[in-house]
Amino acid sequence: MLARYLRAEEPALFPNSPWDELPDLELPAPRRREGLGRAHIPVSTREPLAQAWFDQGLRLLHLGWRSESRRAFAEAARRDPELAMAWWGLALTRGAGARCATARAEAIHRALALSEGVTDAEQRYIVAATFLADKGPANGRHGFVREMEGLIDRFPEDAEARLLLAGFLADGYESDGRPGPGQPYAQALVRELLRTHPHHEGVHHAWVQLMEESARPGEAVESARRLRLLVPQVGTALLSAGRLLLRTGHTHDARETLEAAVAVEDAWLQQEGIPGAAASVAGQALRLLVQACADAGRYGEAQGWARRLRTRVEDVTPRLGQSLVFAAGALSGLHLRFGFWRAAAELRVELPEGSRPAEQVLLRGMETYARGLRALELGKLTEAERSCEALDALSLSLAEERKGDGRLLCPRDVARVVELAGCELRGALESRQGDPARAEATLIRAMRLERRLRGAGPAPFSRQARETLARARLRAGRADKAVDLAESLVKDRPGSGHAWLLLAEVHVARGDRDAATRALASCLECWRGADAHLSEIQRARIFRSERVELGGGEAANASY
C-alpha cells in the first residue's frame, strides 16, 4: 500500500533494506515469479517482456514487497528504455522520507519526459505521482488525490487506480479509536473492490491492512485466509495475514501463517544469495510468533522462536545494536508475560561499539524495568522506587538527541516508551504501597502516554497500563471498576488466555460466577496446548476443577 511506502517507516529489526543505495538501473536482475495474482495496467510498449515485468512490479507493489517490486520495475525499464510507466513504478517504490526524495523526483521526471504519446490513463497516473515526488507525500496529498479521482472518473473500470488511491488514503486510527481523515474513504473503495474483484490479491491485502487496527478486524479474516491461498510465496502478504489472524484470536491459524512467512523469506534469501540482514519479514514474523505462543500459553515454544530470532541477529555481520535490542526485547517480553522477572532482568546483551544512544537507553530501560518488577515481587519497595527513578532519568537523557531517520530508532520515541514504563511501574508500586488513589492517577496517566505513542515507534516493553490498573483496582476492592478494563483487553486480544483469565478473576471478585465460568472456558480454550507446569495455567485448571475463589489473594496480587 502506498501509505506504507511513502510515509514514516517503522524502526525495523534490520534497518537496511536490500539495494536501497543502488541506482535504479543497477539493481540486480529479478526472477520471474508465478502466483502473484492478476493485477494489470496496459502500458505503452512493444516489448511483451517489458509489460510482463511491469505487471510483476505492480502486483508486488500491491502486496507490500517493495524491494522486489522495485527490481521488477527496473527490469521493465531495461527491457524498454522508453517505457514511461516503468519509471512511474520506480518513483513509487523508492521508499519514505527525505533520503529518497531526490531519487523519487528523478524517476518521476524521467517518466514525464517519456510520457508524450502514451495513453491518457498512463499520463494521468504519471501526473498524479508528480505531486508526491515534487511536493512530498504530505504537501502533495491533495493534488495526488484529485488527479487519481479524475483518472477513476474517466476510467471507472480501472480497479488498479481505485486500489492505489485507497492504499494512499490509508491513514490508520487515532489513539482514541477514531479513523484518520482518509481511512473511511479508503475502506469504502476497497469494500466495493471486494464485491467487484473478489479474486484480486491486492484487494484482499489492502482490506487486511485497512481493518487490522479497526474495531472490526474480524471483517477481514476471510481476506487473510484468502491471501494464504492466492499468494503463498509472498512473505509480506503472509505477514499481514498472520498479524490480523493473531489480532482476531485465530492463534493457531496465525502461527501457521507466520511460520510460512519465515520459510518463504528464508527461501528467498537463499535463492538470491542475500545476507540475513535483509530479512525484514522474517524478523517481524518471528517476533509475532513469540507473541502468539505467549497468548496460547506455550512458553517453551515461544522461547524457541525468540532464541531463533536472537541467533539470526547475532549471526549478522556487522552486528547491529538495534537488531540486538529488538531480539532481546522479544525474549524479555516473553519472560515478563509469564512473571519470570529475574530472567527478564538478566538479558546479557552486549551492544557493539559505537551503538547509538537510543539503542543503549532502550536496552537499559528494559533491564531496569524488569529489575523493578522483580523488586516488587520480593517486597523490596525501596529498590522498586529506585528503578522508577532510573527509568525517569533514562527518558530525560534522550531529550537533546536528534530525531531518528528512516528505519532507525528515533530517540524521541524511545524516550516516550521508557517514560511510559517508568509511569506504569510507579503506579504498580503505589498500589503495592497501599495508596490506591495515587496509583489510579498514575496509571491513568500511563494509559494516556500509551495512547500517544507513535505507530512508527518501538513497541512498549512494559505491561499494558489497562491491565495494571485493573489489578490495582482488584487490590483496592473495586472490582466493578476493573471489569471494563478487563473486557477491553479481551476485545483487543481475544486469543490471549492471559486476558481471559484476568476477566475471570474480575468476575469472581464481583461475585458473578456465571460470567467467570464463561470467561474461564474461553481462557482454557486458548490454552488447550499450553505448558501445564506454568502457574497461570495451573491456577486456571484448579479453578475449573475445584471451583475455588480467585478473587482475592493470589489473583489480586498477580503482577501480570
Using brief descriptors, characterize the structure shown.
mainly alpha, Serine Threonine Protein Phosphatase 5, Tetratricopeptide repeat, 27 helices, disordered C terminus, TPR-like_helical_dom_sf, Tetratricopeptide repeat protein
What does this entry look like structurally?
This protein has 560 residues and is mainly α. Among the domains are: 357-476, no CATH class; 479-552, Alpha Horseshoe (Serine Threonine Protein Phosphatase 5, Tetratricopeptide repeat), CATH 1.25.40. 66% of the residues lie in helices and 0% in strands. It contains 27 helices and no strands. It is globular. The two termini are 36 Å apart. Residues 548-560 have low confidence and may be disordered. Pfam families: TPR_16, TPR_19. It comes from Cystobacter fuscus (strain ATCC 25194 / DSM 2262 / NBRC 100088 / M29). InterPro entries: TPR-like_helical_dom_sf. This is Tetratricopeptide repeat protein.
